[in-house]
């Protein structure tokens, strides 16, 4: 309730008339202040995507203010026939799932580049790299020569490298599919379809995923749309206990 309504009950009428302009101004300015205050991201996620000073190239805090919170890393219920330890990439819904025990999964938001829409099916993690070099494909150079031709010989790792701090390289048998799961120097792109690249995660998320999956881990890439997982069940005031990843591989010819 505005202060003027309270004072009107107790002040004489002639005093109230004199004070009314001031009281109204006070109410209006208070409302203006309240309207200008917008809540920021949940502190839980601010901490999750905070700086990583111990990296080879120290990572600053990730700006998550431009990304929908549903794309932040969270544990969810996930109904899938895939075995624990499998990575499922859902390009349509912009999510990557690391399947866990008991119908659960760790879900990460992703940005999907053009190359990420050109592969579908089963593969495996054939190689892992920390702070990898990046070399654009010939098609990327042809599509954006001004941006990519200068890196035809490869870009050294660092904070501006498009692959970010970690990369997972997908193979089928001994063949490199050229499909990559990696970090990004453009965190605003998570949840979006972007012009280049494969599957990009927040840098903090690719570091987390990298630590959970071994070389040989199975990967399934889905290009068709299907219902997203249920809302996250973790509680911010309690530590999240992660299931250990079962390293068994499915009987796929990959």
Main traits of this protein?
disordered N terminus; 6 helices; 254 residues; disordered C terminus; single chain
Please describe what this structure looks like.
The chain is 22% helix and 21% strand. The model is unreliable at 1-8, 22-35 and 229-254 (pLDDT under 50). A ten-stranded mixed beta sheet has the order 1-4-3-2-10-6-7-8-9-5, with helices on one face. The longest helix is centred in the N-terminal third of the chain and has 24 residues, at 13-36. It is an alpha+beta fold and 254 residues long. A hairpin with a 4-residue loop joins strand 3 (95-99) and strand 4 (104-109). It has six helices and ten strands; from the N terminus they run αααββββββααβββαβ. The relative contact order is 0.20.
Per-chain topology:
Layout lengths: L2 H5 L5 H24 L6 H6 L25 E4 L9 E4 L4 E5 L4 E6 L1 E2 L8 E10 L7 H6 L1 H4 L17 E7 L2 E8 L16 E2 L2 H10 L5 E5 L32
Parallel strand pairs: 2-10, 8-9
Antiparallel strand pairs: 1-4, 2-3, 3-4, 5-9, 6-7, 6-10, 7-8
Basic shape:
globular
> Strand order, biggest sheet?
1-4-3-2-10-6-7-8-9-5
Distance between the termini: 68 Å
Helix and strand content put the structural class at alpha+beta
Low-confidence runs (pLDDT<50, min 5 residues)?
Answer: 1-8, 22-35, 229-254
Number of helices: 6
Mean pLDDT: 79
Proportion of helical residues: 10-25%
- Measured by DSSP, the beta-strand proportion falls in 15-25%
Q: What's the story with the biggest beta sheet?
A: 10 strands, mixed
Count the beta strands.
Answer: 10
**Order of secondary-structure elements:** HHHEEEEEEHHEEEHE
What is the radius of gyration computed over CA atoms, rounded to a whole number of angstroms?
25 Å
